[in-house]
Amino acid sequence: MKISATIITRNEERNVAAALRSLAWADEIIFVDSESEDRTVEIAREFTDKIFIRQWPGYSRQKNFAAEQAANDWIFNLDADERLSDALIAEIQQLKEQTTDAAAFEMPRKTFYLGGWIRHSGWYPDYKLRLYDRRRGRWRGDFVHESVEADGKIKRLRGNLLHYTVMNSSEHHERLDRYTSLAAEELYMKGKRASMVSILFSPMTAFLRSYIFRLGLMESIPGLATSYFAAHYVFLRNLKLWEKGAYSGETGHPFRRMAT
User: Fold this and answer.
1) Which domains does the chain have, with CATH numbers?
2) What is this structure's pTM?
3) How far is CA 52 from CA 41, 45, 201, in A?
């Protein structure tokens, strides 16, 4: 089994070197950048010469494009803020010496947040499908939360994918604002709409699920933060979804006059 690693970026000079260094085991690295304005591409040239620069078409389209440039059918996709643990690298190197009937492999992702590894709140094991046969798998999802749909058996690896997410609460809030806009757009395009009930009660449900039922309370302050952010995510997503209906005139809201 030969494996091509793919990574897509935009303005990731803070993360890209460590991410690419953890892909040293791959048979090649395909690097696709969306017109970064920092040193991302310059740093990437130290690790691979297979670099493509193109406008941003969306997460799935960009990742599928990267896979299409690969010389090998087996693809390992890594985000710029992720690294492979030593245990995961060892497992993949063993796979390269074998044959398999699987179409894809998923692995647990462990996230570093507010100074420590989060093991509760629904953040772990957080299985991610990242190693797949492109002949039987393809990225889906036009807006956010893209994932690989694989046609065939999916097996699990035990080694952790390490996720070095936001550095602090301010960055978390900024990212949440961007992702909730994408999520609301996706739901709106699928015909979903928000109501007073969903705006009021869904965030409460999200908090209780994360803090109580998924044991976020065991993580001290970071667990409280992840649970509150989970609730705020749901609140903003549903509010933005409601706004889309209001501005379009679907709800009869006076915003309709402001939008015309």
Assistant:
1) 3-164 (3.90.550.10), 169-259 (no CATH)
2) 0.90
3) 9, 11, 45
